[in-house]
Amino acid sequence: MEVLFFGPHQELLENDPFMKKSEQKKAAAATAAPRIRITDTTLRDAHQSLWATRMRTDDILAIAEVVDGAGYYSLECWGGATFDVCLRFLRENPWERLRQLKSVCKKTPLQMLLRGQNILGYKNYPDDVLERFVALACENGMDIFRIFDALNDTRNLERAIQAVKKYGGHAQGTICYTFSPVHTVDNFVAIAKEQVSMGIDTLCIKDMAGILTPAAATELVGALVKAVKVPVQLHSHMTSGMAAAMYLSAVKAGAGAIDTAVSTMSGFSSQPPTEIMVAILEAEGYATGLDPVRVAKVNAHFRNLKKVRQPSSSGAVESVDADVLRHHIPGGMISNLRSQLQQQDALDRLPEVLEELPRTRADMGYPPLVTPTSQIVGVQAVLNVLAGKRYEMVTQETRDYVKGLYGRSPAPIDPKLAKKILAGEKPVSCRPADLLKPGLADAAAQIDPKLIEKEEDILSYCLFPEVALGYFKWRAKPVDQRDAIPADIEEGNGPKAEAQAQAEDAAPAAQADAETQRLAEIGRFVVSLAGLVQGTGPVALPTAAAPVPPPSAPVVTAPAAKPTKPEKAADAAPQGPTINAPLSGTFYRSAGPGKPELAKEGDSLKAGDPLCIVEAMKLFNQIKADKPLKIVKFMVEHGAVVSKGQPLAVVSY
Length: 653
Known about the structure:
single chain, 27 helices
């Protein structure tokens, strides 16, 4: 696939060495209408921002050929959250999605979002895993890699850029835009120059929260165009309502490409609408080269699909969120937050979380909020609110961030807070990935060979061990013996509603089990992370008269179990005091496949020693002994879904 460079000025187009001769002639003949190239985000960021990334591969393939012929600069269709969601919720192979898309899209370069050293996960991965991932992505059809680091730490970008160039891809560097006392135009220009020295082909300003104003875009783009000799692209979200106006200012300042989504998939936390941006640009004397008939056909396809895929919660929100200028929550995170809070009927705590989030971000050194820092800071803000005391409970990812394992924070972290969280550990100052040993060989040795179909499976396992294993085991079963697809269960609107209702009537017990699985597995992002869910179900919100218990420590009680059959009540009841789950999520006895168990039955632990882990919203929370104890028996299997208050282990003191 031939990847074209772009530029707002005609001389850049005419002299573009990657442009076909026929296109050079067209460019020379169109000097009155300089070309602005458009990247379509409908197949990745748009549905990540609006539909919690629930678009299926078949949804895309049904319209892919039309999209391919519409005249886009590139199609953003992979990366970001799509990889994890394919495995976790859709029970699809993300590598197969890429291969199938490439077999159809022969005219337009495919583009992905790569989180630098984080690849597609929520931590840094070893260099050998990163390089092999990029190699296989190129081999399977990826053309353009938009590479970013949540902290704009260029040390976390260099190896990814090198790998993309090595295997023939187009490396687009990225500046994650935010504003704070420490983020300035000069600072962003310095970051851009470092990336250019690393070999990037183009540069993207990633305005993930939609907070870049038109005036700020004029200043920033103008400075970048003067300082670096690579074309500049703009990515933004309509969360604040400013993105369309900002795009026009950026183009006039020298940007040569923008990101849009077809109108049905645009707006609010997604990108500006393609059709409207084309009209704006053409009225200003620019050309986009898009085929309006094909764009309209694509939009009609997603208008029909919206009835099935759009979460029910998204229709009840306002179209513009001016508060984003304070809390900076990015588009994709807002979609999941909104969807999951609505499902839990717990939107009443959202204002408090949005008030707390800027304070938590300042404590953490003003990181830009984009995966994974948006999850780390956002979840910590939630815990600060629901615990009733700030930093009473701290996730493992927050500890790693404060320690420097994600990279350099833009500003120093509050010293008192760092001392409290690190508890004597020293922060690191080197490139975080330098501390990691190669990971491919160990990963390959940990997987049952019968579960592996292609080398790509090993990479999936490296990024998401438990999730990938769950998918591999599901895939290995005969079709008629597979568990229900989580995304099918959670969809309750559109044409599937009647069939789902019939299934519930036919098998209420099985449906109840599936519902419990769904509620925990989808992350239960804000409220259920601390185990506070309003209404009926496995977790109940305390009444106004009752104090909210802090989720910072295990609750030690001796409750009677809730047996499924009365005659088994005596067998099911734990014999002795228990350590209970302080939050809802997935129970693990180790930090990952191939790693030793944190504690075994019969072990004696000191206060503060870890017993197990409860994962919620992809963040890991260690459950620790509140005082010296001995583990008598674990009550939950590794990998099982648990609810707040559920006994995890019987102990003795």
